[in-house]
């Protein structure tokens, strides 16, 4: 088993995890414009898919180490930015005279600068906090108690994500009490999602460790988000 974040030549399993991570991230940003009601709570539809990105991030950090997770987080950011740019180009291109869907397109895919900033910052802050906690706790616990690491990292990561996004996106638009309720509601729902998915996380992690022959421990890791060379 490897003991530092330098594993290379990952199999198709690694690519599958990366694809699930990025797909869930991009899909959540698209469906987030719809509000749904679950258990009496009003939430963005993104809550049904966005937590999957955190589960995949946990898998990446646990199996492949913080360095690999860091690169994938930035890859997800770049892919999401590309999708947003494509949507914007589609918005500004002149519609065909007979096409009647421009207003609907603008409503669903026409992100405002404030929402974009909130989304991008929340993603980076939440994902890097999540990966950092997973990595540090793995070393401290000597690889034991995976469920404690996944839940603890999600509590902080999802909490920071919800706090940053809701605050930047809706500060001055929502009353403070409603703002606080929205942060706590999303935070608890996403964390509950992670708890419910813990058995699946265990299955995936154990499968990947056997297939890849990896179990990375990030000793002496530089946790700066801005180092991509290793």
Describe the structure in your own words.
- There is one protein chain.
- It contains eight helices and two strands.
- It has a two-stranded antiparallel sheet.
- It has a single domain (12-212), classed as Arp2/3 complex 21 kDa subunit ARPC3.
- It is globular, with a radius of gyration of 19 Å.
- It is mainly α and 230 residues long.
- The chain starts with 11 loop residues before the first helix and ends in an 18-residue tail after the last helix.
Topology:
Elements: H1 12-31, E1 35-38, E2 41-44, H2 50-64, H3 66-92, H4 102-109, H5 113-140, H6 146-170, H7 176-196, H8 198-212
Antiparallel strand pairs: 1-2
Question: What key attributes describe this structure?
Answer:
230 residues; mainly alpha; Arp2/3 complex 21 kDa subunit ARPC3; 69% helix; 3% strand; globular
Named CATH topology: Arp2/3 complex 21 kDa subunit ARPC3
Helix content: 55-70%
Rg on CA atoms, Å: 19 Å
The parts where pLDDT drops under 50 for at least 5 residues are: 1-7
